[in-house]
Here is the input.
Amino acid sequence: MKRKTRPPVKQDAIIEFLRESILEGGLKSGDRFPTRSEIEQRFEASSVTVQRAFDRLVEDGFVSVRGKDGTYVAENLPHLSRYGIAFPKTFALEGWSQFYTAMMAAAHMIEREGTSRLPCYMGVDGGSHGDGYRALVRDVCAHRVAGIIFPGRPRFEEHYPLRPRPGLPWVLLMSSPPLLPEAIAVDLGGVAGFLDRAVEYLASRGRRRIALITVAGFEAERLEHFGNRLPAFGMTTSRYWHQAVDPAIPKWADNVAHLMFHEGHRERPDGLIVTDDNLVEHASAGLIQARVNVPGDVEVVVHCNFPTPTPSVLPVVRLGYDIREALRTCMTLIDRQNRGETVSEYTVFPPVFEWEVPSPGPPMFRANG
Here is the structure.
């Protein structure tokens, strides 16, 4: 007959008491905990139960054991220094993007620079209950994250248990305002930050006929803004110079660029903007097949999420976002919310050219789940 295991009621009560003392500020980083014997008496628990409770708190990052010197509150408490990044996809599988790769690289660079941690959780999306989702739920329930950063607009069911709330801020790193009223957004570029800087650069290089290769679903508002900006610089464009490709099938950017710049055209663009880094490698291949000289015949500005360079065999100009600084902005907004400060629901993060970004070290990758 299988023996029934009694739930660790006293162990959980000890963990909850000590953790709440830290979360509410009664115990601060570097403070010494009460002795084991004091806790045993308070909870009428055995030494084994108390030790197991401390072991759990050590594992969760709240406790630092200093040998015979005693047990102390950890210096870098997880609810103040760990910022979870919830990726909707799983690394190296279908749908993974250059943006996600850049974010992972940036997260590890920030970790190497200081005391913050940015654990990455894979496959966290609406209706998902995979390893990454479960790991995030466990860490949230154990107060092991200061807040959650979502690279893009999350898709969740109404009953999703990790809704943004006091003590669990959400920051959406995306390109348009969030539909979720409880969350805040860090918008990469605003309505047309990337396009504005790209157009200004091409104008400074004397380019006048501007083409655009973008992704399917590119907002009409941004396209209209692009068209309205060109005349101020003496530039023109045509509807057939605006082409979109599904980012999940970026190979088609090869055909689009080849067709757009084919030498049989009576007039070809002398400036090209590629708005998504997943398309750059293939658009470059199409330009090579069209026998276009870059930058002689056409100057090319391509999107890039730094610190991960966008691959291209051509001498393109890279313009995009320093994801390290964008993540730091997200972390600051989470910290401010946790301190009870009022923050803007919508922050625009500006684009930068590659020569404006500090040179990064080699990226390293790690993922939870």
Remarks:
- The chain is about 35% helix and 15% strand.
- Confidence is low (pLDDT under 50) at residues 1-5, 361-369.
- The chain has three domains: 9-75, 79-190+324-356, 193-320.
